[in-house]
Structure formats: structure tokens, C-alpha cells
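Many introductory courses stop at the sequence. We go one step further.
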Amino acid sequence: ARPSATASAPKPRGSRGRMMPAMRMIPTIVRFTALDEGGIAQHADANCGQSVSMIIAPCVLREAAEFITRLHRHHRPPQGHRWSLKALNDDGQTVGVAVVGRPVGRHQQDGETVEITRLCTDGTRNAVSFLVGAVKRVARMMGFKRLISYTLESENGASWRASGMTQTGVTAGGAWSGTYGDGKARANVHPLEPKRRWEIRL
């Protein structure tokens, strides 16, 4: 099944009536069925919570950060993003968020790659693969060619595999060095173990 927008919005125009680039358009609310991406959603997060119907909606960074602060097991919210999405259940409650940004590692910053820098759910079944599938669609629509993300080496990555992503490497882990733009030393309030890199061509 293919996603369908609940409402069709007029195409945005610039101040002189010219069409705005398509990459600036993100669906307001999109509903995906459990069989999207070849039924992948039915196999992901098999041990997490109960299966529910979900919809995807845009999410401002502040809202995503609040959700991550409450529920993420080992990372703080990111400082910025390109865009974020949230998964809502039938009651309109947020059950997961995905924050997408420029790749953190400078060697991955080729202008064609985006990274899921945070993905956090409340344990709702299929929420991880549901959000990853939505991020892939938006990234593809915006013209990006590759999507990457990282998980701790101690995490098995079953949901990422179920979402169609492939492990392509393992980082050495360790602490950040250097300083922030204001001269302060970079904080290392995160796990320092090696991380698995996941990616998919869009």
C-alpha cells in the first residue's frame, strides 16, 4: 500500500508567484498501513508493547526534545535538526519521534546524506520501523540519496534490519575532543562504547 495524505494542501508559491522547490514540502499528516514497505512494519519491534494504528505528523524540535528527555535511555536531545517527525496513536498521543539532521561525522557530510540523530519511542510495537519508513520517504522526496544512523554495539539492531537498513560498519567509540563554538570543552555525557552504523540507499 502507498501512503496517502489525509488532506491535499495547495502548492506553495514564492512572493512573485513562482513555484517553491518541492524539497521544501513535507506532508502535514500521512497515514501508513501496517503493510507499507513490503510488510516490514509487522516484523519490527516484535517484543515491544502492543500493535496499534499510527499516523505520521511533523514535529518541532522542542517537542521532540521533551519526548527524548523523558524516554531516551542514554542520549540527550540533539541541538538542532533538519526536520523531525512523530508517530501518533489513534488517541492523538505521541508514541515516538525521529530527529533527522546533517551527519554528525564530517566524513559522511557529502551533501546527499542525512542522519537519524535520535529515534525514541515509548515501546509501542512497530513504532521504530514505522518512523524509519516515514523518514526514508521524506528524505527521498527531498532529494537525498542516503540515510544513516547509529546504535550502540550492545543493541542488536533488529528494528533497523526490519526497516531495510544494513549495518555497514562499527565506530571505535570513545569521547569527543575539542571545543564548542563558544570555547567550552565538548561534553561526553553519552555512552562511549563502539557504535554500529546503519544505512540505506534512497
